[in-house]
Amino acid sequence: MADEDKKHTEKKKISFVGSVGPLSLKGNLAANWKKWLQCFKIYMVAGGLEDESNERKVAIFLHLIGEDALQLYNSFDLSGKVTYETVIDKFEGYCVPRTNITFEAFNFFNRKQKEDESIEDFITDLKIKCKSCEFGTLADRLVRDVFICNLNEKYQFIREKLLQEENLTLDKTISLSKTLIMSQTQANQLSKKDLESTSVLYVKSKMQQSQASPLSQSRPESQSRAPRPPFQSYSRRPMSQSHQYTQSQPEPRCGRCGQVHRFRCPAADVKCRNCHRIGHYESLCRFRNAKVHYVQMDNSIDVPEESGNYDWNINLHINNTKIVCTLDTGSDANVMSIDVYNSLKISNSLMPSDVRVTSYSGNNVKIVGQQDILCQYSLNKKLLSKKINFIIADVKSPTVIGKITCSELGLVRRVYSIAQLKEMSNSYSETTCHKTNVADSSEKSFNKSNLVLQDLLKNNESVFDGLGCLPGKCHIAVDPNVSPKIDAPRKIPFALHDRLKQELDHMEELDVITKVTEPTAWLNVLSG
Question: Could you tell me the fold of the domain covering 101-185?
Fold first, then answer.
């Protein structure tokens, strides 16, 4: 009878074999081994095989571990009788490398919760990483601290609540965190239901109003209107009948102050610092981004007659039409508006232009094209003519003559020396308007003025040489009642050390300062 029970038990054990998959040698080998070994031990206990002989347990182990791991087993140098513990130790030594506790602790303390990671997954991973750090009795405390510190920003309310708790344990931390998340979820659902209930009640009141009796419809509008929800502000614009007011509708903001108000606007009596008008703030001024194409001087300003002529205009005659042009030495191009160009009635069509023109305010000016126009002008009581290239722009502004054309026409000269201005004026040709003549005369004038400067320096060499000391000696009296002062040395940057030393040596050569190598009661900031 005992033999039959033993055979029945053996048959039951054998029928349980085959429920553990092979060991994967790819990827994270250490994690795969630990997971497989755990499953294998569970299998051995569930099948009642933990008390079997070493040979049978080794055979079951090698049978379930797979072909790849079996080849790895063959590479082990195992001679003689092999025990079950020896096989596990060999695989443990191969699959699990030596653990660097410092690096594992670094990974543990820098583990942060991800955006889409739940509280349960985060705390579970922290516990797993803590096991390889060998913290001992401090494990739960450190897991709790890292959990609180490295929570995601969306769980800031959990962190604030946990920091207020006293005698906080790891289990209490996990329980309280789950409770807070559940409470927030339930509160959001209740708020959503309250909002839907309010909207439905209000729509129902509107429907009851539309189904009222003719007597109620004949009442004044103020009496038949449905009641508005409390704490609700509305704009004064007319709204359609199908529009329903709900608490989720964004409240309209005032275009003058940027706030939400039901009564008088706070910016009603405020003066804008941008356009100087009454009734709105500067930040909401509609004239804030106004484009400035040109600046015109106010003729109401009184200018003294003896101060000179401030008129920087020139009259150009084009197709028997007089055009007043502004001389602008800050402009690189000649610009004419499309309206002025059309008034000239020029037969030639506009040529395309790749030039990009911007105003002083940085705004781009729309270009229509360009045209070479023959212009006549008067200079020093002589009538001259020249073709000028104009950029035609779609902008309302005066016709502008740029600095290059001003120089070519002889309207503006570049002065290198004020002393030779009269000579330059006499040497300048009135009949020609090329830049080369101006440059030649200016260069000659510059060379001549340079010679005059060299003669001046040579004849007065004593004035410009040396320190320029005055004759005699000056004695500075020091009040004996004044206590000496010692200033702390100033920190000089390393880049200025050599230049400072050269300057101090130079001043010492000129007898401006004297080097002191003995103790003194007075000390300035450069001493030390």
Answer: 1.10.1200
User: With b meaning 16 or more CB within 10 Å and e meaning fewer, what string describes 55-72?
Assistant: eebbebbeebbbeebeeb
What are the extents of the domains in the chain? 20-95, 101-185, 254-290, 310-412, 480-528
Q: List pLDDT tens digits, range 135-179.
A: 888 888 899 999 999 998 888 888 888 888 888 898 989 988 889
pLDDT digits (tens, 9 = 90+) for 338-370: 899 888 888 888 888 888 888 777 778 888 899
Residue holding tokens 């030649």? 440
Tokens of 486: 């010692």
Query: For residue 376, what are the β-bridge partners?
Result: 317, 385
* 1-13 pLDDT per residue, tens: 455 555 545 544 4
Q: What are the distances in angstroms from CA 483 to CA 56, 336, 394, 480?
A: 101, 75, 76, 8
Given a cut of 70, whether residue 516 has pLDDT beyond it is: yes
* Straight-line distance from the first to the last Cα atom of the chain, in angstroms, rounded to the nearest whole number: 109
How far is the C-alpha of 252 from the C-alpha of 258, rounded, in Å? 9
| Residue 323 near residue 340 (C-beta atoms within 8 A) | yes
Which homologous superfamily does the CATH classification assign to the domain defined by 310-412?
A: Acid Proteases (2.40.70.10)
Distance CA 410, CA 6 (A): 126
**DSSP symbols for 152-171:** -GGGHHHHHHHHH-SS--HH
pTM of the model: 0.30
